[in-house]
Design brief:
With about 220 residues, this protein is an alpha/beta fold. The chain contains 6 helices and 7 strands. Helix 1 (about 10-25) links the parallel strand 1 (about 1-5) and strand 2 (about 30-40). The chain is globular and about 45 Å long.
Length: about 220
């Protein structure tokens, strides 16, 4: 199976579904990641920007990611980029990869980039492509937004939680101290909560937005 993650920022893919991606790779699935934005000067330093590039490469090797596509649009400024042009860029990615499943941001996340990514993901996956679309929760974005994240899919990541945290720690520029949500404890706590909802030790949860031939 071919999997495509459409995420706005490097580390979103780990926070939201690092455990699920590890399971996909274990199961022999092809995992592809499309990151929509990048940091830019002068808001971020050259050193920070270079660090983000290096971190992504390390994560891909660590997890066994098939490919990573970076669209390099300005981060936190997707609303300034023509929506139709974003759809075209993403459609080209989908046409190239031909995924059976897309994971993307939840529409009620507080981050505007995330909302736009969700809308574009629906556009590029609409029938007759019949691509399964699921949204994930992103720590410090989903729970800080206004609106529900009511999952209807839970994935047991008890065997993957430690590797997920190791992958997150590769993104040194994003790691925060607890009680910030983007911390080791924050990740483990959320996974424990989602696990308890489904009688697992640790889990990641998703909202199925579109489903075709789900088994």
């Amino acid at each position: 199976m071919k999997v495509l993650v459409i995420a706005c920022h490097p580390d979103d893919e780990i926070l939201g579904l690092g455990g699920r991606l590890i399971k996909h790779v274990k199961e022999g699935d092809e995992v592809n990641i499309c990151i929509l934005t990048k940091a830019y000067e002068p808001d971020w330093t050259k050193e920070y920007i270079s660090q983000k590039v290096a971190e992504q490469k390390k994560v891909d090797v660590f997890l066994g990611i098939k490919s990573r596509i970076n669209l390099d649009l300005p981060t936190v400024k997707l609303n300034t980029f023509p929506h139709g042009s974003l759809n075209k860029l993403l459609q080209d990615v989908v046409d190239e990869i031909q995924p059976q499943i897309i994971y993307t941001h939840h529409p009620t996340d507080i981050n505007l980039d995330h909302k736009i990514a969700f809308k574009s993901s629906l556009v590029v996956s609409r029938p007759p492509l019949n691509i399964n679309v699921l949204t994930f929760e992103t720590l410090s974005e989903t729970e800080w937004g206004y609106g529900p994240f009511s999952p209807n899919i839970w994935v047991d990541i008890t065997l993957e939680i430690d590797k997920k945290i190791e992958a997150f720690l590769i993104y040194e520029s994003e790691v925060r101290e607890y009680p910030h949500p983007r911390s080791v404890e924050g990740i483990r706590n959320l996974a424990g909560k989602r696990g308890a909802e489904a009688n697992f030790h640790f889990a990641e949860s998703f909202c199925l937005i579109r489903g075709y031939n789900i088994k």
